[in-house]
Amino acid sequence: MGACELCGAEGVSTRMATVSHSKLECCTNCIESMRLPVNHSTPVLETPKSETQVIGRGVSGIDIMTKEETELAGDFHNRIRKARIERGLSQEELARRMNEKVGAVQKAESGIRPTDKLLEKFSKNLGVSLMVESLPSGHTVVASESNREMTISDARSSKDELVKPKKNKKRGRKLGVSRSGARSRR
User: Fold this and answer.
1) What percent of the chain has pLDDT over 70?
2) Range of the domain at 77
């Protein structure tokens, strides 16, 4: 949102328009009422073919909207434990092979997410894949119970079943408030 340089209106969307050989930021009302020609200038950027450049706010050169194709498996800790046991290794032996502390192996096997570097060490030493193909986060897989095609109502009703009811919170007493009420002075 900006201010119109022609009429002075503030908080309006503006576009670059030509007014008597000058370029001004004008609001839609001025452009329509005065039939001003709008400049459709798009910035021309020369980017090397090897790099991707992102225009706008944020970190230059990094597209934050791209998502990796793989993500850490939900059962990575079970995969690590199972592969370690299959190879007949103790946690201490695996930690020694990876040049890490035993606590790192114990944490990973208990389900605490290790660093990417540590995940690579687990994969290399145990020969197990800890990454799976990622699914889009905005998509939900919904199946119909009958042979007919699904409708929006079917998807909505199945989504409602997935929502768990909220538990009522137990009300605690407020700080500084006595349970028995106000104290009396004698």
Assistant:
1) 56
2) 70-133
For the chain, the domain total comes to 2
pLDDT for position 43? 52
33 φ, ψ (degrees, to nearest 5)? -70, -35
CATH classification of the domain holding 129: 1.10.260.40
Q: Is residue 129 part of a domain?
A: yes
44, 34 Cβ separation under 8 angstroms: no
Does 45 score more than 80 pLDDT? no
Q: How far apart are CA 184 and CA 29, in angstroms?
A: 71
| pTM exceeding the 0.90 threshold for the entire prediction | no
- Is residue 58 situated within a structural domain? no
Rounded-to-integer distance, Cα 157 and Cα 160, Å:
5
Write down how long the chain is: 186
pLDDT at position 3: 84
Structural domain contains residue 27: yes
Write the burial class of residue 118 (CB in 10 Å: 0-12 exposed, 13-18 middle, 19+ buried): middle
Pairing, β 14-19 against β 22-27 = antiparallel
154 pLDDT above the threshold of 70: no
